[in-house]
Write the structure tokens for this entry.
Amino acid sequence: MSSDSTRLEFRDPVRGRELLARLESSVERAGRRISVMHVCGSHEQALARYGLRTSLPRGLRVVMGPGCPVCVTDAPEIDQAIELARRGLHVLTYGDMLRVPGQSLSLEDVRAEGGRVSVVYSATQAVEVARRASEPVVFFATGFETTAVATAAVLDADPPENFFVLSAHKYVPPAMQVVASTPDSQIEGFLAAGNAAIITGYGLFEAFASENRVPVVVAGFEPLDIVAGLVKLVELVVEGQAQVVNAYPRCVTRDGNRPALAKLFKVFAQRDGEWRGIARIPGGDLRLRSEYAAWDAHERFLAGERALTRAPVEEGVDQCRCGSIMSGTAEPSDCALFGQQCKPDSPRGACMVSSEGACRIWHQYGLGLRNERELSSLRVRESSP
Amino acid sequence: MCLGVPGKIVEIRDLVARVDFWGVSRDVALHIVDEPVTVGDYVLVHVGFAIRRIAAEDIEQTLEFYREIVEEELGPSALGKAES
């Protein structure tokens, strides 16, 4: 199969229009406005990049939920990493975390002050840095379950004694639960992230779907994957069927990657934790089990200290609406700062910092800005095969 | 961070594979890949770890999609950098 033919297969504009027409008629048949949520920065990137946001039926609202790991990392968690760097410890983290502000500073600010903060691209690389060093090295580990599996793997492979993990890992399914059980939630269906489901398997969503009476469709990242996933999801919503459908069968299985999942929960336990700007999520944080306390930076450097706490009303302080946007109750364009005082080169909130943040993605593709119409038609032309 | 990147295995030493991503090669950990892999196989890589062996018939479409995204949005050298 040549690359050209496969591109046509997954981006064929004729098939795309057919699917969009089918989506339109399903929404029309519902006779009301339908809201669904996806929980993945890569889905938002694809929706924006292929001009799908401007082609969706008017009666369908597709909101981005808490799908940006960098954005939901809580400010006090970032402050802990900053605190350790200021004590002179060498702090390693993923590149996306550098510019995200804690309650006052970012890790990049601390690095500018002379703090030792370095970027790594994998947990393995962080271990290598520790092996070459004699002093303690702290890996500030962020990200959802797919990323936490990598941290678990290095902790389970006999890392050196001077390697410490400051875990801010998050587990997505409990956050979906919180959104689904919010009383005034208008979300009637979930588009689950294909890549996370490679690890967890789609079977994980079956109990969620039946308990919350809400359908879940696992979708991939090609434009047709997403539109086809939405078609299926809207049909399930209209028919009132709280099922799980795997619309990404070429990568996702019912069981997922079992050895990886086993490793994840061998090393990590779920704890209640704050998701920045959203809520306290029961079981939403992944923290090291006591068997791994020897490598736990919380135990080694922060035990017994008063927990770093948040400022009372983080969101209201500078009008940043990141939290509402990640909860699905506001869109980037609802924020007064968006595209004005808050831009990618001068971000005010985490949603504008990360390449997976809704605000950053909308800004990059000209969505929700004053000249949206012109820009989005340009994108549609560019993305046609 | 959620965007897994596929590459081709060119060498394996214990639990580390040398993986080629369109000319940029990287060491990738094999601790958690879902099934046994050999040289010549493609794997989906997430933050330095292979998380899934990709079946032959899925390779072309996946590669093309990611090549385009990576080169357009991050520049051709971006694979050598951090996750994102």
Summary: The first helix of chain A runs from residue 3 to 11. Chain A is about 45% helix and 15% strand.
